[in-house]
Amino acid sequence: MTEPTLFDISQPGKRCTRMPAADVPAPALVDVVPAEHLRAEPPALPEVTEPEIARHYARLAAQNFDVDRHFYPLGSCTMKYNPKVHEAIAAAAGWARLHPATPAEHVRGALRLIRDVEGWLAEILGMAAVSLQPPAGAAGEFTCLRIFRAWHDARGDTGRTRVIVPDTAHGTNPASVARCGWTVTVLESGPDGRVSTGTLAEALGDDVAAMMLTNPNTLGLFETNVLEIAAMVHDAGALMYCDGANLNALLGRARPGDMGFDAVQVNLHKTFATPHGGGGPGAGPVGVTAALEPFLPIPRVVERDGALAWDHDRPASIGKVQAWFGNFLVAVRAWAYIRANGADGLRRVTEDAVLAANYVRAALEGAFDLPYDGACMHECVLSAKTPTQETGVRAAEIAKALLDHDIHPPTMYFPLIVDEALMIEPTETESKRVLDRFIAVMLEIARAAREQPEALHDAPTRTPVRRVDEVTAARQPFLRWRPE
């Protein structure tokens, strides 16, 4: 039975809470909004009571899948549970109600927080300087590449037009390259799922501006030849960019700066305690070497006459990449998260995340294909290639079957180089009990694929919305309600 919408239960004359009329004259609407932008008729909104509205949205919220109530092993996205105390800190009025145009002398605490987070991230990354300005991961990629371009241009080296991107990179990397006016050279991975130095040597040339390397890559594998790779790229006159979206695998154990990277982007909304999903909020700080520090976005927080202040006078800067100074409240959450964990706690985050991924990988070996041998990092990639060939049950159907067990599906069909890929990232926040249940459900689904494949073709059966026509939904989406 389809749940009624607010329009279905609307009745003329219904109202929510009524307030007494104001005794202060209000300006005419036409004095506030130009007449050409005013409606000729009022909008056809539903007329309902407050309890009806409250129950309607509560029901929709209960149907939503969220990490507060369910396990969310979405690979590559680090959908981990974030402590509510950091939300409370970010919601404090002194932070949440702070206007970005407030003069610097009245926001010394905010400038100190920005300076702290930048310094801590620089130490975590092994970089000389960090800017918090980019508002998301892809924006951080774009910022790093713009810095690279500014560096090449400043040296008069303007003939570089290509960027090397391995086939195990995050999907936004090629788009960032294109936005910077460069072309992408895709580098095929070797049989071990890592960059082959021989293949890289063939791709390098004096027209290469940079290499973008995700480490660990999207197969959950550490690029063990990273030092040699960085040396080869630098010898060719190019720069090394590290996609830091998988930083959850490195905290306190390895630093991109020590691997030879010139710049790195971080997803604060993945690793440092901001709830991830729903389009935001995000933050994608960038860290750079000392040679690239002059090109960072403005403004920068500096100490002047014994006090912190904004510095806009940086002639080599690439300028702004976000209004004001990025998503400040995400930085507040990161500040609280780093302070709460400390160096030992951050190291434990990585150790537990890597342990959890390898625990899941080892438990599911045999029931699913493992495209690459050896231990993984913070996420593992399985393949449903054999079940698909033997029973017709594809990765998408395995993922949909998980919904009937109140488990969010892992990432499907990514990385693209793995057939029928299922990419699982358990994160450090899940207990062994949760992981054991997930493993048991996955083994049960694998058994059902062999014995009752037709049942999986109908999954999910217990969700508010069952199978949808995904092709039609993608090509002809209904993005808003329309009256009959």
Strand content: 5-15%
Mean pLDDT: 93
How many helix segments?
Answer: 16
Element-level helix/strand string:
HHHHHEHEHEHEHEEHEEEHEHHEEHHH
The CATH class assignment of the largest domain is: Alpha Beta
Radius of gyration, whole Å? 26 Å
Based on secondary structure, the structural category is alpha/beta
Unreliably modeled segments: none
- Looking at CATH, the homologous superfamily of the largest domain is Type I PLP-dependent aspartate aminotransferase-like (Major domain)
Q: What would the CATH topology of the largest domain be?
A: Aspartate Aminotransferase, domain 2
The largest pleated sheet is described as: 7 strands, mixed
Strand count: 12
Q: Any idea what the shape is?
A: globular
User: Architecture of the largest domain in CATH?
Assistant: 3-Layer(aba) Sandwich
Query: What spatial order of strands do you see in the largest sheet?
Result: 1-7-6-5-4-2-3
User: Helix share of residues?
Assistant: 25-40%
Task: Report the span from N to C terminus.
Answer: 18 Å
> How many domains make up the 3D coordinates?
3
Q: How would you briefly describe this protein structure?
A:
The chain is α/β, with parallel strands linked by helices and 484 residues long. It has helices at 29-32, 50-63, 84-91, 93-96, 108-125, 137-154, 173-179, 197-203, 226-235, 268-271, 328-364, 385-391, 395-403, 432-451, 453-457, 470-475, and strands at 129-131, 162-166, 183-187, 208-214, 239-244, 263-266, 286-288, 300-304, 307-311, 380-383, 411-412, 421-424.
